Amino acid sequence: MSLKKQAPNNNSLNAEEYIKQLRELINYHNYRYYVEDDPEISDYEYDMLYRELVDLEQAHPELVTPDSPTRRVGEQADTAFSKVIHEVKMESLNDVFDIGELIDFDRKMREALGQEVAYVVEKKIDGLSVSLEYENGLLVRGSTRGDGLVGEDVTQNLKTIRSIPLRLNRLPGEPEIPFLEVRGEVFMPRKFFLEMNRRQEELGQKLFANPRNAAAGSLRQLDPAITAQRKLDIFIFNVQRVTGRSFKTHSESLEFLKSLGFKISPEYAVCRNIHEVIQEIEAIDKGRESFPYEIDGAVVKIDNLEHRSVLGSTSKAPRWAVAYKYPPEMKKTKLKEIIIQVGRTGALTPNAVLEPVRIAGSTVSRATLHNEDFISEKDIRAGDTVWIRKAGEIIPEVVEVDLKLRPENSKPYTMPENCPVCGAPAVREENEAIRRCTGIECPARLFRSLVHYASRDAMNIEGLGPALIEMLLEKGFIRGIPDLYKLKERRSDLTALERMGEKSVENLLESIERSKSNDLSRLIFGLGIRHIGLRAAQLAARHFGSMDRLMEATVDEIQSINEYGAKMAESLFGFLRQEQTRHTLSLLKEAGVQMVSTASNNQDGIFNGKTFVLTGTLPGFTRAQASEIIEKLGGKVSGSVSGKTDFVLAGDEAGSKLEKAKKLGVRIIDEQEFRQMCGM
Predict the structure, then answer these.
(1) 220-263: pLDDT as tens digits
(2) Cβ atoms of 215 and 203 closer than 8 Å
(3) Which one is predicted more confidently, 363 or 450?
(4) DSSP code of 622?
(5) Quick one: CA dihedral 419, 422, 425, 431, positive or negative?
(6) pTM higher than 0.70, yes or no?
(7) Taking a C-beta distance cutoff of 8 angstroms, is the pair 484, 510 a contact?
(8) How many CA atoms lie within 13 A of 511 on its CB side?
(9) Model confidence over 529-588: pLDDT tens digits?
């Protein structure tokens, strides 16, 4: 590689030349880190180089080029991804499941060609197949495989993958390649998959089933910045089309791709015959647990490209290649007991405690049982002998019970009706598989409760994000929501925390203090009650006027609130009757948190009797903030436009509601006019 390894001298170069050399240096270090996995400089040194390039490009926007490292995260997609017709079909492979089938495949190849056959064996990465197209060395388009004939344009998202070169290396003494299309497999490394699922669980979001699903979901994000956070990677394994180059073998083309800067199929092997193929497949199987990525098999391809063209393809797959699929390893062991783990969202998850057994390269003593329906369907009981495997080769799960070995005195398992951590009712809602703890003081779900309480639409405590909440819990500074209002007594301790200076602490404490005067609706929403969103919280606050009156209300009185149904009323009533809830609210009241609704006293406001519909994005408000202002001034916010609508408040990218308002002759106002009407 001829790229410079030392930073260029800014004093001796003009801006254009300096920026060019800086880009080359950053691209070099990207290659060392993301392709070679052998960085030469620290993350900090890299960040400083990257920051310098960003600053220079901002100062000289006319010098920004499409292949600059700063262009990796581009614009958001305006609409769904556009379709891409593949000039060369992105074929799938026929599968074989045992050595006998593999030997039979080799026999057919030798008979068709009339000679011995050399193969290339590659790991079958469990990811998402994509195409990358380059014109004159520059990446111009990236697309998904789709059905093999038509995929989707995901260029901006693929650019966020650091191992994909935005510009190809130019080989010494050779011209730029006019056109090149390659095929690769996008995947999520194991450690990032586990890390992302941990974050998903903390945020109360659905877990990804396996790394492949995670990679596919990440690559189809409308916002490339989200894709960039998912830390995807890629291996390139085929030349689809190329001009100005030709190859005799597949292995030759792989080395050519490597010289251009691609991260190619890892540790591929050229095998002279089927016996060497079998040895390589067995070696991959033995080592696959140590790979930092998931594989679901090995790909066996004829190496000679002329032989491939002779053999051709069927309507579905090439005749010259197969995918050897490894069977999932399963082991039998005893399930000693079923225990319940309470997650940060309050979800009660049953887990099997197993007699330790080694499977797929590691010792397993726990396995997920997912939920009570899973246990019921498989009739899993304590004392059973069970078969287990690793789902997606990562998460252990119980596959089935060996009923012949079931103890005579075994009893069906029933989920607890109360949280095993705090004792609060554990409720399973209709049409849901998960049972959840409803206790607001439950230590297991405290992190999630605090994150929600501090969020913008709830108590809006600026500066109190998930990372700081995690730190405050770890240090023992808070053990419940009311403790937030005692943090002012720990000013010196807060200042000593990492990334917390005097100014940050001052701003945080001021924001916590301001939250005391929020309207009651924000407090109700901030408590995180099932089925009670921001709108429902606002309606309850206005209807009852105070927390005391709301806590005394019956189910029927709560259900009489406009727009409330039985499920909402029962959820709110049950939550407010819990001892934990009443204890927390008494401490919040003692701390000075507002327990009355200011909106309920504004029946003579300037918007009294007026109905608003919001559409589009408002630069100065969130929809929740604008709705709160309207309701405080006596108005009502509706979700749809009708003849009874008085105003449509339209922001950027307003949609069908705006068109309907025009047809009905409803008055349309923008944010500036809205502010004037509110006297802001």
Answers:
(1) 888 888 888 889 999 999 999 999 899 999 999 999 999 999 99
(2) no
(3) 450
(4) -
(5) negative
(6) no
(7) no
(8) 18
(9) 988 998 899 889 988 999 999 999 999 999 999 889 999 999 999 999 999 999 999 999
Q: Return the closest-CA partner of residue 335 out of 291, 303, 368, 302.
A: 368
| Cβ–Cβ under 8 Å, residues 184 and 128 | no
pLDDT tens per residue, range 289-328? 789 998 889 999 999 999 999 999 988 899 999 999 887 7
Report how far apart, in Å, the C-alpha atoms of 221 and of each of 7, 59, 154, 233, 518 are.
35, 31, 9, 16, 35
Where do the structural domains in the chain lie, given as residue ranges?
Answer: 10-71, 94-324, 328-437, 438-597, 602-678
3-state helix, strand, coil in the chain (%, to 5): 40, 20, 40
Range list of β-strands (E), 343-461: 347-359, 362-368, 385-391, 395-401, 426-428, 435-437
CATH, range 602-678: 3.40.50.10190
The Cα 526–Cα 448 span in angstroms is: 11
CATH of segment(s) 10-71: 1.10.287.610
The pLDDT of residue 2? 36
Those residues whose C-beta lies under 8 Å from the C-beta of residue 471, and which sit 6 or more positions away, are 497, 498
User: Which strand ranges, in their side-by-side order, compose the sheet holding 269-271?
Assistant: 94-96, 321-324, 295-302, 119-125, 269-271
Instruction: For residue 224, give Cα distances in angstroms to 131, 145, 159, 186, 219.
Output: 18, 19, 9, 15, 8
Residue 1, pLDDT above cutoff 80: no
Q: Name the CATH superfamily housing domain 94-324.
A: DNA ligase/mRNA capping enzyme (3.30.470.30)
Q: How far is CA 19 from CA 31, 40, 65, 650, in A?
A: 18, 21, 10, 43
Cα–Cα distance measured from residue 433 to residue 425, given in angstroms and rounded to the nearest whole number: 16
| C-alpha to C-alpha distance for 47 and 394, rounded to whole angstroms | 33
Strand, helix or coil for residue 515: helix
List the catalytic residues. Answer: 124
Fold of 328-437: OB fold (Dihydrolipoamide Acetyltransferase, E2P) (2.40.50)
In the block, residue with structure tokens 């596959």: 399
CA dist 372 → 339, 427, 436 (Å): 12, 12, 12
Of 254, 249, 266, 301, nearest to 119 by C-alpha is 301
Which token pair is 299?
């790909």
Tokens at 212, concatenated: 């492949």
The helices-and-strands tally (H runs, E runs) of the chain is 24, 22
Q: What homologous superfamily does CATH list for 438-597?
A: 5' to 3' exonuclease, C-terminal subdomain (1.10.150.20)
Residue 312 DSSP SS3: coil
> Considering only CA atoms, which of 580, 577, 608, 582 is closest in space to residue 595?
582
Q: Which residue type, as a one-letter code, is found at position 426?
A: A
* Per-position DSSP letters for 11-70, written without gaps between them: GGS-HHHHHHHHHHHHHHHHIIIIISS--SS-HHHHHHHHHHHHHHHHH-GGG--TTSGG
Phi, psi (deg, nearest 5) at residue 668: -110, 130
